[in-house]
Design brief:
mainly beta; 1 helix
Length: 96
């Protein structure tokens, strides 16, 4: 699937793209448990466009700028009016 075709609310999305940006990790507290998670916003791109990708915990150290990655079974949301791709707990992120 091409990045330009991703729309808010899509599920079971598979995308191959290159990591073009990776922000600094920050910590967020869970609303449901007494746990803290690390989170990073990255930007991935293919020849059709780019989209923000949210990386959680161990995913952060797997991915670096310049890596080609594959996301399987991801989903698309909109946060603060910005479309973003999420791997989620049922998705899979692979560095190629």
């Amino acid at each position: 699937m091409d990045i330009k075709d991703l729309k808010d609310g899509m599920k079971r999305v598979s995308v191959e793209a290159q990591v073009v940006e990776k922000g600094d990790p920050r910590e967020v507290k869970s609303r449901f448990k007494d746990e803290t998670y690390r989170i990073v916003d990255a930007v991935i791109a293919d020849e059709t466009g780019s989209i923000k990708l949210t990386l959680w915990n161990e995913q952060i150290d797997q991915v670096n700028v310049g890596d080609k990655i594959k996301i399987e079974n991801g989903y698309v949301t909109s946060f603060k009016s910005e479309t973003q791709l999420n791997v989620g707990k049922f998705g899979k992120l692979t560095v190629q």
